[in-house]
Structure formats: structure tokens, C-alpha cells
Amino acid sequence: MKIFTVRHGQTDWNIEGRLQGHTDIPLNPEGLDQAERVARRLSGEKVDAIYTSDLSRAFKTAEAINQHHNAKIISTPALREASFGKWEGQNIDLVRAEVNWEHPDPDGEDKATAFNRIHTFLETVVKSGHENIVIVGHYGSVTAAICYFLDMSIDHQRSLSVGNTAVHCFQKDADGKFRMKIENDMSHLDG
Description:
By secondary structure, the chain is an alpha/beta fold. The chain has 6 helices and 6 strands; from the N terminus they run βααβαβααβαββ.
């Protein structure tokens, strides 16, 4: 089994350093170009299914990737970024300075709940019967997936680097464990 994870392309809120969470911010022109580039990057891979967050920035990235594969796209809120409640749209650095990042807002979703939601969904993906999978998500869902596939705790999540349209690849070995084969690859954005 081979699983690729891809973070969505760039949005205006990424540039502005604003928390997006469940707010459905579209890809900007650069993000659409990045989606096309990562699609070309993955065009030579065999893909049986693409699982994506239902938010447009991830779904549009998944659609671009699927232009080269004609795979089944499964859209789900389970792969969304954590909900940041009233903090969505606010500057990330200001929010970090003012609140406990573990519980950003009572109307939002705490880090552990989002992490567990994503891990529970990934268990179904691994059991889906698909051998070659692309998962398109957000910083939070991709880093949670990295932790899931490498059997790392939630404490490692914030230390992981995942740029817009970064590709990670995990392969399941004969011993049943996943190994990272590609880490944070954004070479498709060069040039």
C-alpha cells in the first residue's frame, strides 16, 4: 500500500497569516497554479482513490490531481482542518500570543479532538481496499496523518513542516508498518 498526502494550494489567508479552520477560503491564482503543478508531479503515479477534505481549497487541489487519474474522489469533513471557532480569520501569531493553543475557542475544536477525528478516519482509509491513495487536506490534517502513519504522538504535530502542495509518501512494508518515502517535497514548485 502506498499513500500520498498533499496539502492544499495557497489561499489569500495563507499569505496573510490568518487562521482558516473550517472557513471555506478558495485557492488564489497562485494556489490554482500550485494545484496544477502538484497534479503533474503525481501524474506518473498509480492512484486508485483520492480522499479529500470537503473544503474547496482541498477539493479543488484534489480535482486538479485527478485530471491525470480518473480515480474515485471521496470528499469528507473528516479531513478538515481543526475548527478554530471565533478565531478563524484572525492573525495566527496574535491568536498564539493570546490564547491556549490546545483550546483556541469554546466554539472551536481542541487539538486532541481534531487529531483523533483524523486518525479515526485514516483507519477506515487504510482498510478501504485501495492500494494507491492520495489524501488531500490541510496543515492540521496532513500533520495528523504523518503522525498516524509514523506512529507518533500528538506532541510531534506542530514540529512538522508541510508547505502548500507539499507531498509526503508512505509505503506499507511487509511487516505492516508504514515508512516515509517522500517528505515535504515541493520540488514541483521550482522554476
